[in-house]
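JOB MANIFEST
job_type = single_chain_structure
chain_count = 1
residues = 244
[input]
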Amino acid sequence: MGRAYEVRKAAMAKTAARKGKEYARFAAQIYKAAKSGIPDPELNQNLKKEIDRAKKASIPADVIKRAIEKAKGGAGEDYTTVNYEGFGPGNSMFIVECLTDNMNRTNTAVRTAVTRNGGKLGVPGSVSHMFLNRALFSFEGKTDEEVLEILIAADCDVSDIEYDDGMVSVYAPSEEYKKIRDALTDSLPDVEFLEDGIVWIPQMPVEIVDEEEKQAFIKMFRAIEDLDDVQKVFHNIEGVELDD
């Protein structure tokens, strides 16, 4: 069938694999949220948030439904959140957030992805002290002054508010996440968050100049991100395109 067919076939297989991983990641988050409380989004705000995130990411409704039904079934996986910290090519530092039902599997997978690609894992705290752990909300429709008024009225602790081209971004201590989200959704019931979660922000971003080191970092990053149990990967490198 020719080279073009083989290229299309490989691209389709790669896309399908990535979609499968994305579905699994969202399903695990939804399952954990449903399992930790009442499996009803109207009565479980954490579950509602995870469902909203999944819908925005175009996760199919049946994937969401199956995860909730699985949580209703009683006994099942016991998911644990675990973070890994480490160092990579070009003075890079990274934090990997995982959600797993098998710690041994995840430990081995993350360590292998890192060490095979020129990096090394560190002990807890070896990297995270160079990042700020922040709640982040980004949305449109209000100015930074209007949003600040809402948050002051709700007695929320805010680190920073940015306004750029109609987009408001609110940064706050991670422990303020729920309080700020409640204040925003109560005052702005139709708000649609483009960013909504806890992030790690590097205090001293660096740029990789050497092209070989840059490609090594990209390879390591993608190897980590492709792991089934990995939810998010944060790093301190700027000026590198990580999307295919």
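[summary]
The chain is about 45% helix and 25% strand.
The two ends are 26 Å apart (CA to CA).
exit_status = 0
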